[in-house]
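Records of this kind hold a single protein each, on a pair of labelled lines. Below, a sample record shows both lines together.
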Amino acid sequence: GALERILRTTRHRGFQLESFNVQPARNPELYDVTLRVAGERPLGFLSRQFDKLFDVVAVTELCEATYARSA
């Protein structure tokens, strides 16, 4: 579900996935997803798209990577 939507959003918005990491969060109902992406568009564009996904709790840009926590 959620991971598929994150990956689909990344691809459909014109970004290429360079690395992908998933780890359990402190809350057992959540997990942390770390993406490293490349693309022509500004990274903020992808972050705003992730914010619109109903199962994404928070998005934080870390340098050139986007971090998304999702349920």
Summary: Residues 5 and 53 are 8 Å apart (CA to CA). The helical segments are 2-12, 43-52.
